[in-house]
What we know:
This protein is α/β, with parallel strands linked by helices. The chain folds into 2 domains: 188 residues, Periplasmic binding protein-like II (D-Maltodextrin-Binding Protein, domain 2), CATH 3.40.190.10; 211 residues, D-Maltodextrin-Binding Protein, domain 2, CATH 3.40.190.10. Helix content is 48%, strand content 15%. It contains 20 helices and 16 strands. Strands 2-1-3-14-6-15 form a 6-stranded mixed sheet. The protein has a 4-stranded mixed sheet with strand order 8-11-7-12. It is globular and about 75 Å long. It starts with a helix and ends with a helix.
Amino acid sequence: MKLTLKKTIVVLLPIIIVLFSCSKENESEKTIKFWAMGAEAEYVTKLVPEFERLNPGIKVKVQQIPWTAAQEKLVTAFASDNTPDACQLGNTWIPQFAALNSIIPLDEYVQTSDRINQEKYFPGIWETNVIDNKVFGIPWYMDTRVMFYRKDVFEKAGYKDPPKTWAELLDLSKKIKAMYPKEEKYAIYLPTNEWAPFVMFGMEAGSSLLKKDNTRGDFSSKEFKEAFKYSIDFHKLNLAPIGISQVTNVYQAFAEEYFSIYISGPWNIPEFKKRMTGNLSDKWMTAPMPGNANDYPGVSLAGGSSLVIFNDSKHKKEVWKFFEYLSQAKTQIEFYQMLNNLPSVKEAWDNPIFRDDPYMQAFYAQFTNVRATPKIPEWEQIAFAKVQQYAELAARNVMSVDEALKSLDKDVDRILEKRRWIVEEKKKNK
């Protein structure tokens, strides 16, 4: 019996040593959990091996979550104390998670980093991540909206260069419409189920969109009313199709000159390149948004995705190293080549892949004048549910501009009722 036991110990000893060694090795290795959405998760995974090579002892586990369920999944994870170490967030989502106290301010990391600081980013993009003077996210990639237009149609209408002012855009649109007196064709596509252009015009006119600490709608203001009337006039003057059902295929409609101007984002560059081929390949271009006065480019939206760290993470320093890696110009260019997501760091734009691409010049120029929408959790509900609704009603003459905006403000005030109460309580407790 003793002999058998001795033999067993001899046999098991090497195994025990190996297991102990592995245990000690795993203890020294730190794994950070990073959640990313859709295709971003698939492609960022390809960047991880190089990071792990450069940072021995740190592993990155990427989990893919679908865009359609991302916000709900993140809120659920927070409620159940099961958040990852870090995550990709649409920059309009940051106010919600900052309000929940689920993500941490990153100021102390930014202040000591030689790779991530405000000067490396476009001001409007960086600002989307700042709430109450604290930085809650680092821009990962960015987007905005510019004009996609038919160069050949513009030239026929007497415009060698794209319009730089609202007045020029309206004048050009009228001239384009006049070119097709007997055809059902238009100048510009401003679908009422896309809230962005209406809001962009409003911000360009000087509207804050909301007032009183973002607790009430300000859409009836002189500034927004001017912009809203301007954009709705394109529909009333028959310069833009009203119903979205009239355009079943944007690219085909653009190719057939059903409209010659479309306000859209960088995600459409590959699509237009793919579909505008043959004799159409050199007949389209991009241009920044026109301004209301002397400013050019005019205002566009500061969109994109940011990197955030969750409060409960036990590997914050390791996550920050990963963020610094993702924020290098080289890494962002590589990511762009995989997925066409525009790099957030200005240094990356010096690369010929952007500098020599004529379609990208408009985006680079536009990023110098982009602005964040109101940084409150309720904004998406306001934009998608209400701005679009009343744009549709005004475009169809169901409501006048004044009626639509007054009703919009009333609806927004109802949405913001809880926010007003919170703000008032905070003031009382000061």
